[in-house]
Amino acid sequence: MFRYFPKNYVWNLSVDLAIEMGARIGEIEEMCAPLLAASEQPDADGTRAFMRTWVAMGDKLRALAEDDERAGRLISAGDKLQRASVYYLTAERMQGHGNPERAPLYARVLETFEKGTALSHANCERVEIPYEGKHIAGLYVRAEGVRGRQPILVQVNGLDSTKEMKYFVGLPRWLAQRGVASLVIDQPGTGEALRLHDMKAVYDSERWASKVVDWLETREDIDARRIGLEGVSLGGYYCPRAVAFEPRFAMGVVWGANHDWRDVQKKRLQKEGSFPVPHYWEHVRWVWGAKDMDDFMRIAENVHLDGVLERIRVPFLVTHGEKDSQIPLKWAERTYEQLINSPKRELKVFTAREGGVQHSSFDNSANAGAFIADWVAETLGGRTA
């Protein structure tokens, strides 16, 4: 794990995630050097300082992109705008719910991302899936070199990630190279669903996952018999739950297991384990729509996989970092042990040899992501060579 801030895991996590999304080390240095003292301040003061420097870098890149546009250099402009959206997104994710600057900053994330991907001709199309009178937004990445209907891996967020984060980290690109399409969504409780439509997280993830499958079945470019599901971090709960109760999924994979999230919350109340975001308890109440801590802990009692995984009868891959600071390895082992009816189950623990040992491999996603992409391609009928 790259530790720019010696005493602040949450800030280091954000910096590492930004690097995995494509941040440049010189820009990281310019943004973070003024923040060393602020990293030791209370959340509210420190995260505002963090926001100012990261937004300033995003604005600088937008201005440089405008110079490129005026010169007709649209691909260069698009690349800079995509990186600017990474910095805006990193800054937005660090702010507490209710910060008045958060909503306009998130709007800037979406605007900058959309323009950046368009100008750079990225293999990325925005889609909207009807859901309960609103919609679930997604990013659709087409498989490369496939004629006819494509296999596809639906990818869902954790507690605090967004579809743009997952897109930038790279799994959709790695899958496209292997002949597998991707649909990265902001499911209820995350991204646009939470911020723009006030759609709270639900423990019965099959509720929204089934609607995604319904939508995919209407597409002539998708092979409905080869739809997989992947989840990262808290998605390590959402994904197995959805695969268990939605039999149309052909396979599942978790990038960081999350077998018993209720237990994780109890441990965090006792100051055990690292938090993923500042303002943590405020954030989880917002995500789940809890009115207070008692209400949140009542909701969290449902977020576990005991008695669920026996229903899964399709191939399933469980991955975990051996030095995960947030979710103990034992929960990955528990998930694997309970997949008793999966015809092809595998537990992959990422070690120091290949990297990706931290939570959902944020310390080094490349090798871990390649392993996952290969496994998915082999399972859904893609290619690995």
Explained architecture:
The protein is α/β, with parallel strands linked by helices and 385 residues long. The protein has 2 domains: 9-120, Up-down Bundle (de novo design (two linked rop proteins)); 125-380, Alpha/Beta hydrolase fold, catalytic domain (Rossmann fold). The chain is built from 15 helices and 8 strands. The protein has helices spanning 9-21, 25-32, 43-70, 74-93, 102-119, 163-169, 171-177, 191-195, 206-217, 235-245, 261-269, 280-288, 293-300, 329-338, 365-380, and strands at residues 125-131, 134-141, 150-156, 181-185, 222-232, 251-255, 316-321, 345-350. An 8-stranded mixed sheet has the order 1-2-4-3-5-6-7-8, with helices on both faces. Helix 1 (9-21) packs antiparallel against helix 4 (74-93) and helix 2 (25-32) packs across helix 3.
